[in-house]
Amino acid sequence: YKEFSVSLSKEDFNKVTDFSMLIYDKDGKALVKTGLSYSEGKIKISNNFKSDSVHLTLELVPAFVNSTDSITISLKESTFWNIPQLFQLKDNKRSTATFYPSIPTTLECNYDIPVYAVPAGSKSFGVIYFESDITKKNELELPIYFKF
To answer: How large is the C-alpha radius of gyration of the chain?
Structure first.
């Protein structure tokens, strides 16, 4: 799926009475609609389309308090794949890690470069899930960014 994160400064958010976010298909039909309730929000769309390529349009519609106002919008686009990319994580050549407050730990990460094309200028990211040896439940999640 694709996710768009929208954020405004508090000053800019106070300049709008309403803020809509919509994703349209090529025929102009709104597939996803949501609003911005606070200065930050997200809109996402899943790839449930039958064709290999789809033309979609993201539209941001602010309603200003004063018609002469303007705002600055920060927009971040993220693409998520449903195919997990597994990798090995080691702490001093061991597959288990113990973390202590205020003690930095360096983990070694071995992975294969994904087979799908990553566009130039994009930042590949993921999440490392640490589970307890005792409870087998996720105890910690850390974001990770890759350099290919």
So the answer is: 21
Tokens of 22: 């919509």
Q: Are 99 and 90 in contact (CB under 8 A)?
A: no
Q: How do strand 74-79 and strand 2-7 relate by DSSP bridges?
A: antiparallel
The Cα–Cα gap between 16 and 36 comes to 10
- Give pLDDT, residue 148: 66
Q: Which two tokens stand for residue 112?
A: 């294969």
Backbone angles phi, psi at 54, to 5 degrees: -135, 135
pLDDT 10s digits, 82-92 = 777 777 888 88
Whole-angstrom Cα distance, residue 33 to residue 25? Answer: 12
Buried b (16+ CB within 10 A) or exposed e, 74-111: eeeeeeeeeeeeeeeeeeeeeeeeeeeeeeeeeeeeee
Nearest-CA neighbor of 78 among 106, 110, 42? Answer: 42
Amino acid at 60: L
Chain segment 20-74, per-residue pLDDT in tens: 999 998 899 999 999 888 899 999 998 888 877 788 999 998 988 887 888 999 9
Q: Whole-model pTM?
A: 0.67
Cα 91 from chain centre? 27
